[in-house]
Amino acid sequence: MKLTTVCFVFILFFIPNVQSQTIDKFVDDESMLYAHTKQVNQFFRRFNGEEDRYGERFSINDPLFQNGQYRKEFINLLFDKESTIISNTLKVDFIDDVSNAEHPNFLNFHGGKWFAQVKTSFLYKGSEKECTLFLKLQEEKVGSKWVITNVLFEPFTSYFINTDSISESQRKFLHPLSHELDFMNLIKVFKQDQIIEQFAEEGFSPDYLSLFIYEFRKGSFQFKNIKEVKFHIFQINNWYFELSEFNRKGNNSGWLISNLLKIPEADKEILKRFIYHN
């Protein structure tokens, strides 16, 4: 009888405690789920102060809708807290700038000035290779769609030589009177082991996307998988930031700002070319 009583008391006190721990754990996990920025569209809305941390959108009449102070607090949560390349001073300057009461900066999903970088894996002529695709959102008469704008693929880039590396004394060119010879000097150009790029027009840049499509049509490429996706955002005046996805436990996860630069508008094209490796 005593044993039965002890067991009853144990069950009475132990089970509620287990249930309490389970509920607490569920609440914690649910809170993390709410804080997790699961979609890029959601990142845009949260950055703009158009959604709360539970994923509920604000009415435009809500006092918190695009509220500067609310944005200042929320945008701070949209940074990768584990990043060592973004200083706190730079982050504070950025947040103050975009949430400025008189001249706030917002993101526009259909506003252009941002693009995706997708690292993929292909079998290329039997060997596994990484291939980076760049895509942008293209507006259509009805809706929009993602389109490939550029390709970064090491076997392609190794085909071409940067003519800036050729000294003036070693440069070759077609004489301005070549037309009077019916361009017969092209025979010498194509017979010899020439750096053919130096005969192209000034500013020549290889079209890697056309090469990619050509090789794909030939059957040289076999798609395997997607390795990584990130976005480059140029919409904010005098700022650039990188958006990456972090799959980890905790509130600081999902789509977060992983890199940040203060950059004059005039220099953004240079940065884009650097990203494209052009």
**Helix amount:** 25-40%
Could you say which structural class the secondary elements and strand pairing correspond to? alpha+beta
Note the overall shape.
elongated
Q: What Rg, in angstroms, do the CA atoms define? A: 28 Å
List the helices and strands and how they pair.
Layout (H helix, E strand, L loop, with lengths): L1 H34 L4 H9 L19 H9 L11 H11 L15 E11 L2 E13 L4 E9 L1 H4 L28 H6 L16 H11 L2 E13 L5 E8 L7 E9 L5 H9 L2
Antiparallel strand pairs: 1-2, 1-4, 2-3, 4-5, 5-6
What does this entry look like structurally?
With 278 residues, the chain is an alpha+beta fold. It has two domains: 25-112 and 234-276, no CATH class; 114-163 and 182-230, no CATH class. 33% of the residues lie in helices and 23% in strands. It has helices at residues 2-35, 40-48, 68-76, 88-98, 154-157, 186-191, 208-218, 268-276; strands at 114-124, 127-139, 144-152, 221-233, 239-246, 254-262. The protein has a six-stranded antiparallel β-sheet. β4 (221-233) and β5 form a beta hairpin. α3 runs antiparallel to α4 (88-98).
Can you tag this structure with a few keywords?
278 residues; alpha+beta; 2 domains; 6-stranded antiparallel sheet; 6 strands; 23% strand; elongated
Can you give me a brief rundown of this structure?
The protein is an alpha+beta fold. It has helices at residues 2-35, 40-48, 68-76, 88-98, 154-157, 186-191, 208-218, 268-276; strands at 114-124, 127-139, 144-152, 221-233, 239-246, 254-262.
